[in-house]
Write a structure and sequence with these properties.
Ubiquitin-like (UB roll); single chain; about 100 residues; 3 helices; globular
Length: about 100
């Protein structure tokens, strides 16, 4: 098992459903997509409905930041995570 810090940035509803704005989630390891699956499995159906689309993938409305430096697109969630990493989930905001 590894521990990855999950942070919800600007998502008070997700933080409420998950039980906190920032916390360490223990899971078997793997990719960021695996981490998201473990998160919704451990924290429940309401969070799954909030974060995932109908195909079980992270909804397009959300953006992932890995270790506060890498902004990842949804197709990049196959990135490996290691013990002690941080994954931030925030809203995707458009503008111009």
């Amino acid at each position: 098992m590894i521990g990855v810090t999950i942070e919800f940035l600007g998502l008070p509803n997700a933080a409420k459903l998950a039980g906190g704005k920032s916390f360490v989630l223990s899971f078997a390891g793997g990719t960021i997509a695996d981490l998201v699956r473990a998160l919704v499995e451990q924290r429940g159906e309401p969070l799954r409905r909030f974060l995932l689309d109908g195909e079980g993938k992270l909804d397009l409305a959300f953006q992932v930041i890995h270790n506060k430096t890498e902004w990842l697109r949804r197709e990049q969630l196959d990135r490996a995570v290691a013990d002690g990493d941080m994954v931030t989930i925030t809203m995707l905001v458009g503008g111009g």
